[in-house]
Amino acid sequence: MSSREGSTELSYRVASMDREHASQLSLFNDLKAAVRSGAPDSLVYALLNELVEHTNLHFLSEQLAMKLHAYEAYESHLLEHERLLLEVQNLKHSLTAGTATDKQSLIEALRSWLVVHIQTADKTLAEYLSTRAAQPGT
Ligand SMILES: [Fe+2]
Ligand SMILES: [Fe+2]
């Protein structure tokens, strides 16, 4: 890959991270709204599955970028991803029990965690990738 192609690929990756974060948060909002309005379990599960699928792909894409560009904090970032996926699985089990308020609190807690992840670990990663994109020969 030429340095120009490498820079373009990195700039594209940072832009797509932003889009994927917006989709992730919007899926959380949809899920919360569905639970709040007392939507049927089938719809809540469908939204949750969509969120899990989207999150899996998004995390894999970030992990690939970290590996490809020798990101030092790979392991700790990976652990945060694994933790969120585990919590989403737990949420899936919890949705069969509990009140709508419990479910909304769980969803809100996870959403807040994701916002913190985006504002800290992902922000640092995006800055690193942007720096690499600006450097010749990366
Ligand atoms: Fe991340
Ligand atoms: Fe992310």
Keywords:
mainly alpha; 0% strand; 138 residues; binds fe (ii) ion; Four Helix Bundle (Hemerythrin (Met), subunit A)
Write up what this structure looks like.
The protein has 138 residues and is mainly alpha-helical. The chain has one domain (14-134): Four Helix Bundle (Hemerythrin (Met), subunit A) (Up-down Bundle). Helix content is 86%, strand content 0%. The chain is built from 4 helices and no strands. Helix 1 (3-36) packs antiparallel against helix 2. The N and C termini lie close together (9 Å). It binds fe (ii) ion (2 copies).
Summarize the structure.
By secondary structure, this protein is mostly helical. It has helices at 3-36, 41-68, 74-94, 100-134.
Bound molecules: fe (ii) ion
CATH class categorisation: Mainly Alpha
**Number of individual domains:** 1
Low-confidence stretches: none
Give the CATH superfamily: Hemerythrin-like
Named CATH topology: Four Helix Bundle (Hemerythrin (Met), subunit A)
Distance between the termini: 9 Å
Specify Rg, calculated over alpha carbons: 17 Å
CATH architecture: Up-down Bundle
Major sheet description: none
**Total DSSP E strands:** 0
How do the helices and strands follow one another from N- to C-terminus? Answer: HHHH
